[in-house]
Design goal:
This protein is mainly alpha-helical and about 260 residues long. It has twelve helices and three strands. Helices cover about 60% and strands about 5% of the residues. Strands 1-2-3 form a three-stranded antiparallel sheet. The termini are far apart.
Length: about 260
């Protein structure tokens, strides 16, 4: 079992599991990978001889998770690679390492909060969700890689955010991902909470499906929406002479009622 790994193998597996969790998020949305990712993290926590080992497991998981999800930070530094390219490892991996502290805290909290079992699954999910909430406002906030965003291509499930928010859906998602671990010692007993979590997800999906309107959304009188298309090449954004041109080309006003569209 991976919980018995030590040294660089343990750190490497933890980081790889974090990368798997990232692949479940936009733009790939490989949602089934959440099961091996968080189940694997929980196995590492269960096998950790000390709480600080669990913290390290969580940190390496977070390092892989956030570093893989912050690839886009490098784009801005590639505008002028000779001048700024050297900063890419520091920006991506440095920021990923800092955000990994939250994952380390979640693993540590799960390790000390409960013995292996359903209690530790829920503790991990709650601590992870709490960390995402804190990241939303700490140091002006950077709520990146929210686990709930994995459900974006599944609107019925994503509708649950209207009830419990992204943090609540994230808590359910992490718990669902870690639940299979309960089936390892005694699969019959462990299958019950796993099936219950799947049933809860199915009920949320059913509710969300019923909530989505069948027809077009009606116009709201007196409301004006301003939609700005941000798909502008980075090199053009740096040129002052393009400012007015880009605004005129990219700005679209949508007004209600009637959905009159005006493009300049």
């Amino acid at each position: 079992m991976i919980g018995a790994l030590t040294g660089w193998r343990r750190r490497g597996v933890a980081a790889l599991l974090g990368v798997l969790a990232t692949l479940a998020l936009p733009p790939l949305h490989l949602i089934p990978l959440l099961w091996p990712a968080f189940a694997g993290l929980l196995l590492l926590i269960d096998g950790a001889p000390r709480a600080r080992t669990a913290f390290a497991d969580g940190w390496w998981f977070g390092f892989g998770h956030f570093s893989a999800g912050l690839y886009w930070v490098a784009y801005a530094l590639l505008i002028d690679p000779p001048r700024f390219g050297w900063m890419i490892p520091f920006a991506v991996f440095g920021l990923g390492g800092g955000l990994a502290l939250f994952a380390g805290f979640a693993a540590w909290a799960a390790r000390i909060a409960s013995e292996p079992g359903i209690g530790r699954v829920l503790a991990l999910a709650a601590a992870w969700s709490f960390g995402e909430w804190v990241r939303g406002w700490l140091l002006t906030g950077f709520p990146w890689n929210l686990i709930a965003t994995s459900w974006v291509p599944v609107p019925p499930v994503a509708q649950a955010t209207s009830l419990v928010g992204a943090d609540g859906l994230g808590l359910l998602t992490v718990a669902l991902g870690a639940m299979p671990v309960l089936m390892i010692p005694r699969w019959r007993e462990g299958a019950k909470p796993f099936a219950a979590s799947l049933a809860l997800l199915a009920l949320l999906a059913l509710w969300g499906w019923l909530r989505i309107p069948d027809g077009p959304v009606p116009a709201v009188p007196g409301v004006m929406l301003r939609l700005v298309q941000a798909a502008i090449p980075q090199t053009d954004k740096w040129r002052p002479e393009n400012r007015v041109h880009e605004l005129n080309e990219q700005l679209t006003l949508t007004r209600s009622p009637g959905y009159d569209k005006i493009t300049d």
